[in-house]
Every structure is written in C-alpha cells, then in structure tokens.
Amino acid sequence: AQAHNHLAKARSVSLQHNFPVGLNNREAMSSAKALLGKVELVACLAEFNAMAVFVIFGCGSAMGIPASAGVPAWTLMVGLVFGLTITSLAYTHGHHSGGHINCAVTLGLVLTNQCGIAQGVANFLAQMLGSMAGASVLCLIFPPELDMTGGLASNSVRSGWSTVNALTGEIMGTYLLMTVVLQTACCDRSVESRAQAALAIGFAVFIAHILLIPIDGCSINPTRSFGPALVAAFRYDAATSPFADMWVFWIGPLVGATIAAGHFRLMEWVHARTDPKAPTM
C-alpha cells in the first residue's frame, strides 16, 4: 500500500511538470507525441529551404568577385545582396514559418513568446541542415580555384582586428536585427505597417553587413556561418581552420538577440504599466 502511494504521488508530480516517471512507456510515448504535435513540419521545410537559398546567394555573391578589385564597392555589393535576399525570403516564407532564417532570431522569438520552444528547436535543426545544403550547392557552382574567398565565404576575424572587436560588432549587429524584427513584425503597435516589416529587416541586415564585412565578413547569424565553415573544412586544405573564430559567430549573435529580446520585454512591461489598454505578453 505504501509503495502504491509513492507511485501515485510520483505520477501526480509528473503530470504537474509534464514528464513521465517509472517504466510506463505508454506515458513516455504520449508525451513525445504531444511534443511533436506542437511542431509544424511546413515551418521546418520553409526554414530549411530559406536558409539554403540565403547561403547560396548571400555567400555566393562574396565568392564570385575578388575583394581586392575595390573594397568599398565589394562591401556594398555583398551587403546589398544579403539584405535583398533576406527581404525576398522573409516575404516568401514568412507566412509559413515566420521567416526566421537565423537561429539567433529564433532564440529572440522564443524568449519573447513569439515562438514555442519545440518549434524553435525544430526550426534550428532545419536551419542548420539548410545552411549545410546551401554550402554544398555552392561547391557545385564554384570550382575551388574560382572561389575568391578561399573558403565558401566563411566568417573569420580579419587581420588587424581583435576578437573583442568582432564580438562586440556581432552583438550590436544582431541586436539591431532582432530589435527591428520584434518591433516591426511582432509588436502589436506596428500592425498597420506590418506589410513593410520584411523591408525593414532587410535594411537592418544590409546595414550590419556594411559595418561588419571589413571586420569579420559579417555573420549576425550562427547558422549562416556554420554550414559554409563545415563544408569548407572538408573541401579546402587551409592553414587556418574555418572554425578558428566560430565561437565569436555564435556567442555574439546569441547574446545580441537575447539583449534585444530583454529590451523588447521591458518596453512591453512599461507599456502595460502606463497604458491599461496595452496588451500583455
């Protein structure tokens, strides 16, 4: 009887916290199905496709023209392609997945309750696979000797710049992007201009690239950085690993997105306290 009471108590706790206990496989399967039921497959497919296309055209624009031909013009061209590509993809995939196309953006949306945790994890995995797929397609487009970046446009801290310089830039660049996403595509007070959100997001990506391309090639998107680096590591026999500075392109964007999410939640909290009619998160 005592053992039965302990088991009943354990089951009660498990139901409160949504995890199975004991050896009841049926409960475990039920929990797994409930979790998977919260994931929209079409959103994952959209994120995979958008990420692959983003890498192909964004990184491809940097691979085709040598930077030595004119650094200011090259920076402008590459930044513009990245910005226009993200705008196009946000318009074409936003109604399927929200158009994250960036795991830092996905994190920010999860932190502000704009995206569920399960969907966020699924989107992240789709983005990673899409980035690798896009980088693989670039190998079919560009022979190694015609890749002007020498590494599928992988990100790295440029000579003369420190990791602190790059890390700070990545934090601020992603903060800008995440803030624009939240204020134009998520904020209830910007509903009337929602149709222009993708344009503002593209401008933010363009602006960040103009600043950061000379410093580290501009990431503000860990998934964009990972795929090309991984494929380049297998394709090229470079003296320096494309993963040498990879931590910068993960920590920087994720921190920047987190700060932007915190700022957004703070502003929403202030609005809720000063305007009784303001919606709460």
From TrEMBL:
The chain crosses the membrane at residues 39-65, 71-91, 124-143, 163-185, 197-215, 247-267. Gene3D superfamilies: Glycerol uptake facilitator protein. Keywords: Membrane, Transmembrane, Transmembrane helix, Transport. GO terms for cellular component: plasma membrane. Coiled coil: none annotated. It comes from the Eukaryota. SUPFAM superfamilies: Aquaporin-like. Pfam families: MIP. Its main location: membrane. It is found in: Membrane. It is a multi-pass membrane protein. GO terms for molecular function: water channel activity. Belongs to the MIP/aquaporin (TC 1.A.8) family. PANTHER family: AQUAPORIN TRANSPORTER, MIP17260P. This is Aquaporin. It comes from Alexandrium monilatum.
